[in-house]
Amino acid sequence: MADIVEAVRTQGLFKRFGQQTAVGGVDLIVPQGSFAGLVGPNGAGKTTTLSMVTGLLRPDGGLIHIDGVDVWRDQVVIKSRIGVLPEGLRLFERLSGRELLSYNGQLRGIPRAEVEQRAEGLLKIMDLTEAADKLVIDYSTGMRKKIGLAAALLHNPKVLFLDEPFEGVDPVSANTLVEVLQRYTASGSTVIFSSHVMELVERLCDWVSVMNRGQIVAQGPLETVRAGRSLNEAFLGLVGVRDGGGEEGLSWLGATSR
Ligand SMILES: Nc1ncnc2c1ncn2[C@@H]1O[C@H](COP(=O)(O)OP(=O)(O)OP(=O)(O)O)[C@@H](O)[C@H]1O
């Protein structure tokens, strides 16, 4: 792996909440220009990892470099280079979609005329032009993801982090998101997104990091991690298929027990 240029690299990343170790020494690697998937079962530590990597949550230990820059040492530089679509995205609800983009652009110090031009392009490609003057509070889940992604892309970041970007998004909107992201990585930028949907990760990603119980249990090019199996099979093998030991407690469930 010596010749990989890394967009993201963590070493020994660590986070505890009380007694619980959420992230227990993670060495995450994301090569530059990759479309990378971060997968893992519920509670594996994906959101906690992404929150630390994007400077939203302070780690208890470890190092994070994005584009070779220490995230927690040079936050202003890092924030200009990354875009983030966090889980449970909070947006300024009382702005319209267009106003939200304009506000984000101005916060980033982009000249107003440039912001307007970029915003129009993003609204168009996200199929949000008609809804551009509607308040964000009235947007559907999919529309919120799309305007959130537009806001995250407006300053043309080098690395884009997306936490569950396709959750609650219909197939048509998901397709739009995929097209935008593929165009973005084709130009050499990097995307890392977390997901539970293995088929999607398998279809989109060329690099996969698998987390389980706060650790990276496999990481590398998709083909290496899959090792000739479907990603879903590989994933179940890596994280351990649950043995169904709790089934007896559900003997009441279903028609035969009535
Ligand atoms: N703020 C918090 N306070 C206490 N525990 C937390 C907090 N955030 C996360 N955890 C715990 O840390 C562990 C990892 O959570 P995290 O949200 O990072 O997992 P995840 O892989 O993103 O899960 P999911 O796929 O369900 O979103 C979980 O056991 C969770 O309960």
TrEMBL record:
<dbReference type="GO" id="GO:0005524">
    <property type="term" value="F:ATP binding"/>
</dbReference>
<keyword id="KW-0067">ATP-binding</keyword>
<dbReference type="Pfam" id="PF00005">
    <property type="entry name" value="ABC_tran"/>
</dbReference>
<dbReference type="InterPro" id="IPR027417">
    <property type="entry name" value="P-loop_NTPase"/>
</dbReference>
<dbReference type="GO" id="GO:0005886">
    <property type="term" value="C:plasma membrane"/>
</dbReference>
<dbReference type="InterPro" id="IPR050763">
    <property type="entry name" value="ABC_transporter_ATP-binding"/>
</dbReference>
<keyword id="KW-0813">Transport</keyword>
<keyword id="KW-0046">Antibiotic resistance</keyword>
<dbReference type="InterPro" id="IPR003593">
    <property type="entry name" value="AAA+_ATPase"/>
</dbReference>
<dbReference type="GO" id="GO:0016887">
    <property type="term" value="F:ATP hydrolysis activity"/>
</dbReference>
<keyword id="KW-0547">Nucleotide-binding</keyword>
<dbReference type="InterPro" id="IPR003439">
    <property type="entry name" value="ABC_transporter-like_ATP-bd"/>
</dbReference>
<feature type="domain" description="ABC transporter">
    <location>
        <begin position="8"/>
        <end position="238"/>
    </location>
</feature>
<dbReference type="GO" id="GO:0046677">
    <property type="term" value="P:response to antibiotic"/>
</dbReference>
<protein>
    <submittedName>
        <fullName>ABC-2 type transport system ATP-binding protein</fullName>
    </submittedName>
</protein>
